[in-house]
Amino acid sequence: MTDLVTFGETMLRLSPPRGDRLETTRELAVQAGGAESNVAVGAARLGVDAAWLSKLPDSPLGRRVTSELRSHGVSPEIAWADPDKSRVGTYYLEHGGAPRGTNVIYDRANAAITTVEPDELPAAPLDGAEWFHTTGITPALSPAAAETTTALLRRAGEAGATRSFDLNYRSKLWGPDEARDAYETLFEHVDTLFVPHRDARAVLDRDGDAVEVAHGLATDHALDTVVVTRGDEGATALTGGDVYEQAVFEAETFDAIGTGDAFVAGFVAERLRGGDVSAALEWGSATAAVKRTTDGDLAVTTRAEVASVIDGADRISR
């Protein structure tokens, strides 16, 4: 039986060597990257039986995505589309230090995922899963993707799975008002919510500190668990009226992309192993720390490596 099923878009990430500009580089490294598949990979690397649901063109690039995810232990469960009528989304990542900074350019219009329908996705993995996860990126992609997100959350609930949702607000996809309306219609189908504190304020209109935000969201939307992330200040979780705090673990940042997804992966993996919310926060934070030391979107790690971070690394207290 599958432990974890995720649903969403995975793109191909194209990156020039560090220090090179996109407009002058002659080389691009290719890697798979997408919030939900990042979570599936991170959890699979920690011993979870994970599957990823999506729609891709039946093309070399579509198969490139699935082969990379499969190499990390994830089972891709795909609705294959006509490659003449759809495509794989891409994004370009140009690493740059201060004062230039890192630049991200998305090219995802008309990706196969934008036409996805619930009935064309394989149903068996979700029907037997213990946990279902998706993010706020997916419903922003198209009306069809939004409808499928809702349908899968409903189906997962009917099947008895725990359902988690990472807000993952992207201003390049939609504005805060449209996003808030969409998110709040989904919350009734969510058990565990992950939300950055900054987005709780800017998108959900939630004032107050992390504990106040968590209490408000849990009360208003009948959420079992709310995890409020605060960047390098750590994370706060509320569940059953109890509050848990987790500081970050020290890490030398090589690539920060995918850090939030690694946190979710560690959290979910520990919950699936039977750990409580406090332990899940610790595993999430440690997995995120390891992710920051590696290139690419994916948390390529092991249980032993993450456990060693928990056992021996210093926490940064803010």
From TrEMBL:
Keywords: Kinase, Transferase. GO terms for molecular function: transferase activity. Residues 1-297 form the Carbohydrate kinase PfkB domain. It comes from the Archaea. Gene3D superfamilies: 3.40.1190.20. PANTHER family: 2-DEHYDRO-3-DEOXYGLUCONOKINASE_2-DEHYDRO-3-DEOXYGALACTONOKINASE, SUGAR KINASE. This is Bifunctional 2-dehydro-3-deoxygluconokinase/2-dehydro-3-deoxygalactonokinase. The lineage of its organism: Archaea, Methanobacteriati, Methanobacteriota, Stenosarchaea group, Halobacteria.
